[in-house]
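Entry 14. Structure prediction run on the chain below.
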Amino acid sequence: MNSPITQTGTHSTAHNDLSAASASKVLRNTYSLLAMTLFFSAVTAGISMMFSLPHPGLLLTLVGYFGLLYATAKFRNSSLGLIFVFALTGFMGYTLGPILNSYLSLANGAEIVAMAMGSTGIIFLGLSGYALVTRKDFSFMGGFLMVGILMGFIAGLAAVFLEIPALSLTVSSVFVLLMSGLILYETSNIIHGGETNYIMATVTLFVSIFNLFTSLLHLLGFMNGEQ
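Output returned:
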């Protein structure tokens, strides 16, 4: 007959193994879905660029983004959630197309886009790899990131409506840091079992990558004297 201590230890080990296996499954599913949504978003961006489709504008972009984000969250535990994930990321790809066309029309636009894309990839892979290898818990960043993103979003809107270039550049710089932090936070959250839904994990990482790329695009364009 096992002693209570032995039984407790066995149960604890079994629970830890189960939690680790669950986290590993969420991580695999997240990265698989993230790769597919990034590809799908690139395709919709390419189509948008090919046909020179107009940007939907700030209001429609916000309505489309938050509407699809709400639908994705609402149906995150069903197959409909997957449909809305692709609808959301495809829509974001469509809005990116006109932005890329505006940069590519510049003298050194191709270099700016390539630098922004390469930098985004390096930052994402570097931060994700760091979180995976060190397995540090970055959950303490949650509150700070939430407040920072909210304030950055409001400041971004102010920069657009008040037409203040300096504020817009500041927001882009801040968003590079915030999105980098969000990548660390969400990857850590998955590893430590804080995020158990791979659909929502995918959305968080996709949005981080998207905002990181567009912020770097803006900053690099400015540094090259193009925007």
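The two ends are 75 Å apart (CA to CA).
Filed with the rest of this week's runs.
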